[in-house]
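Checklist before submission:
- one chain only
- standard amino acids only
- sequence pasted in full

Submission:
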Amino acid sequence: MTGQHKAAAKTEQAKGAAKEAAGRAVGNESRTAEGRAEKAKGNLRQAAEKAKDAFKH
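Returned file contents:
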């Protein structure tokens, strides 16, 4: 996994977790769902990069 892509995936995961927590704290289900979606997107990006790395070696 390239450093740049890995960092982007981790950033998305962290931003998603923060949005989800903020949404739960204020009772905003829309923000909570948005955070979950962003976190999932980061997880998918990370999985895709790991798969690419597996095929390169």
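Reviewer check: The longest helix spans residues 29-56.
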